[in-house]
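Lab notebook page, bench 4
Experiment: in silico fold of construct C2
Operator: M.H.
Input chain length: 90 residues
Purpose: comparison with the prior construct
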Amino acid sequence: MPSSKTPIWRDDVDALAFQPGEHTGLCMVHRRAFRTLLRATPSPRECIEFFNAHQEAFQAAARTKLLRSNLTVTSNFHLTSRDVIRQLQN
């Protein structure tokens, strides 16, 4: 399982996966969300690079989603481009 500092690309779901701080489940961000964020169809490497450059925003988006959801600490969940954009604008 990746740590919050080590995102991995999951070919099986075409998404980046990372483990948010204080959470044991995985957070997934699909390539379609990155396509919206980057305004182009990115490669897995470009998705990981964008995540690394904006890791604080992704972590904040994950925390926000967990707080407003009724998920257990082991639940997997996903972020949308809107979830991330809200945090990038802060």
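Observations: The chain has a mean pLDDT of 93. The beta strands are 8-10, 15-18, 27-30, 77-79.
Next step: discuss at group meeting.
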